[in-house]
Amino acid sequence: QVQLVESGGGLVQPGGSLRLSCASSEILFSINGGAWYRQAPGKQRELVAAITSGGSTNYADFVKGRLTISRDNAKNTVYLQMNSLKPEDTARYYCNREVGGPLPWGQGTQVTVSS
Questions:
Q1: pLDDT digits over 3-21, tens only?
Q2: Strand partners of residue 34
Q3: d(CA 38, CA 27)
Q4: Are 83 and 17 within 8 A, CB to CB?
Q5: Residue of 101 and 50 predicted with greater confidence
């Protein structure tokens, strides 16, 4: 069973940056693409950014221009570079494949934006 392990979250001040990583235990993102989601307390999980197997990217409107998704096929890892962070970006961030239906979710990584 594929395991997804997210890392890189933390506490950051508004306007700050973080780089999240998501490692897959098997070859995954080069075949199925990858995506980042987030879930804030009391809210549903929402799509943040995605990268297709071909390398095309798309972003939720609320993060356009601030976040960048990328992928390293050799490391079976997808990244999320987060810049100009806002308090409303506070959430637990999860990754999964872009197509084929979600695999079992990892534990996610907490991002807290606060002064």
A1: 999 999 999 999 999 999 9
A2: 51, 97
A3: 23
A4: yes
A5: 50
Q: How far is residue 22's CA from residue 71's CA, in Å, rounded to a whole number?
A: 9
Which of the four pLDDT bands, split at 50, 70 and 90, describes residue 105? Answer: very high
How many CB atoms within 10 Å of residue 83? 14
Q: What is the rounded CA–CA span in Å between residue 4 and residue 84?
A: 26
pLDDT of residue 91: 98
Indicate whether 64 pLDDT > 90: no
Structure tokens that stand for 110 in this block: 């907490």
Q: What are the b/e assignments for 32-45, b being 16+ CB within 10 Å?
A: bbbbbbbeeeeeeb
Q: How far apart, in Å, do the first and last CA atoms of the chain sit?
A: 40
Q: Are 62 and 114 in contact (CB under 8 A)?
A: no
